TrEMBL record:
Catalysis: reaction(s): 7-phospho-2-dehydro-3-deoxy-D-arabino-heptonate = 3-dehydroquinate + phosphate
Alphabetic keyword roster: Amino-acid biosynthesis, Aromatic amino acid biosynthesis, Cobalt, Cytoplasm, Lyase, Metal-binding, NAD, Nucleotide-binding, Zinc
Keyword Amino-acid biosynthesis: yes
InterPro entries: Dehydroquinate_synthase, DHQ_synth_AroB, DHQ_synth_fam, DHQS/DOIS_N, DHQS_C
Cofactor: NAD(+); Co(2+); Zn(2+)
Name of the protein in question: 3-dehydroquinate synthase
Residues noted as binding Zn(2+) in the record, renumbered to the chain: 185, 249, 267
Cofactor comment: Binds 1 divalent metal cation per subunit. Can use either Co(2+) or Zn(2+).
Boundaries of every 3-dehydroquinate synthase C-terminal domain copy: 182-326
Binding, NAD(+): 106-110, 130-131, 143, 152, 170-173
Keyword Cytoplasm among UniProt keywords: yes
An individual GO BP term: chorismate biosynthetic process
Location of the 3-dehydroquinate synthase N-terminal domain: 68-180
Length: 364
């Protein structure tokens, strides 16, 4: 088992990483003296394959456990689902504040975390990510929220987990598309902060796509460590440090929104296209080497990720793009690569270049 500490003073927490670590869940709770009732908000897709094994582990804890199943789809991150779950928790007659546990992917973690941030003005929160995307990205850092029809994550908060339990073995049961979904974020970390990780991804495509345990544990550790160190320096995204984690997300979120939140393009696929579009603009601005652009594009394609979007209404995408939370007083802001392993924030990119990029990569 590896332990990564996220040092945020009174909000500090541990990320426990390893293959089979979920089996130690009862002892982990006991060591940390967590005795409150547990409300487990669980991805139904995950439970379909793992329910018996997981519930057997949870039966070993002395805590009272309440289970709430949700569809692990972006469409679950809505106000009506939020209200439904909060009402369900309230109706269970739980005395005092429970611990909310997210058992699932990024959608489950975002929704459960937003509930933990707002129910009774905040209750303890544990993340147990079960997808590669959640392991390397969304389970760490405290950003939680739900979507509105017009754009993603418009209602949100910061709620750091009290603990993250990251079990690599969960990845064995994931469909190939879900592995690729997470690999987009892994590639992002290589571009923004770790050129050696990027090279490792280039050299080990077959091994990683075959869900090799050692290879995945290495890349998950590298990504989580990068994110932990960035979050420590800029927890609330106020200092233009944490913003680099959004490389590819400006266009990526707009693509997700315009395509119906996961029905056509999931998060990782949107980010993959968004990274190529941002890199394309960086090349046009003279900020990024053309050879590195093709290294990025080729790597995404080797992992089976899209590098342009089809069947998207550009007008709908532009509506969401204009609501991007990184923009300040109407001034656009993008994270653009300078080289593999380093990015920077660029403001006020010419609208003509942005529109040309959309024309190039977003088609009907």
């Amino acid at each position: 088992m590896k332990k990564i500490r996220v040092d945020l003073k009174e909000r500090s927490y541990d990320i426990l990483l390893g293959a089979g670590i979920i089996k130690s869940f009862p002892s982990i709770l006991a060591e940390r003296k967590i005795t409150r009732p547990l409300v487990v908000i669980a991805d139904n897709n995950f439970l379909l394959k793992n329910e018996n094994a997981i519930k057997e582990i949870f039966r070993e804890v002395p805590n009272k456990v309440y289970w709430i199943k949700i569809p692990g789809k972006e469409s679950s991150k809505k106000l009506d689902m939020y209200g439904k779950i909060v009402n369900e928790i309230s109706s269970k007659g739980i005395m005092g504040a429970p611990v909310i546990i997210a058992l699932g992917g990024g959608v489950t973690g975002d929704l459960a975390g937003f509930i933990a941030a707002t129910y009774r003005r905040g209750v303890p929160f544990i993340q147990i990510p079960t997808t590669l995307l959640a392991l390397v990205d969304s389970s760490v850092g405290g950003k939680v929220g739900i979507d509105l029809e017009i754009a993603k994550n418009l209602l949100g908060s910061f709620k750091q987990p009290d603990l993250v339990i990251a079990d690599i073995n969960f990845l064995k049961t994931l469909p190939a598309r879900q592995i690729r979904n997470g690999l987009a974020e892994v590639i992002k970390y290589g571009v923004i902060k770790n050129a050696e990780l990027f090279k490792y991804l280039e050299r080990n495509v077959d091994k990683i796509l075959a869900v090799d345990k050692k290879a995945l544990e290495r890349i998950v550790y590298e990504c989580v460590n990068i994110k932990a160190r960035v979050v420590e320096k800029d927890e609330l995204d106020k200092l233009d440090i944490r913003i680099i984690l959004n490389f590819g997300h400006t266009f990526g979120h707009a693509i997700e929104s315009a395509s119906g939140y996961g029905t056509l393009y999931n998060h990782g696929e949107g980010v993959a296209i968004g990274m190529v579009m941002a890199a394309h603009m960086a090349v046009k601005l003279g900020e990024f080497n053309k050879n590195d652009f093709f290294r990025l594009k080729d790597l995404l394609e080797k992992y089976g990720l899209p590098t342009r979007a089809k069947n998207i209404e550009r007008e709908k995408m532009l509506e969401s793009y204009k609501l991007d939370k990184k923009f300040i007083q109407g001034v656009n802001r993008f994270i653009l690569p300078e080289k593999i392993g380093k990015v920077k924030v660029v403001e006020n990119i010419p609208v003509k270049l942005i529109m040309e990029t959309i024309e190039e990569y977003i088609g009907k």
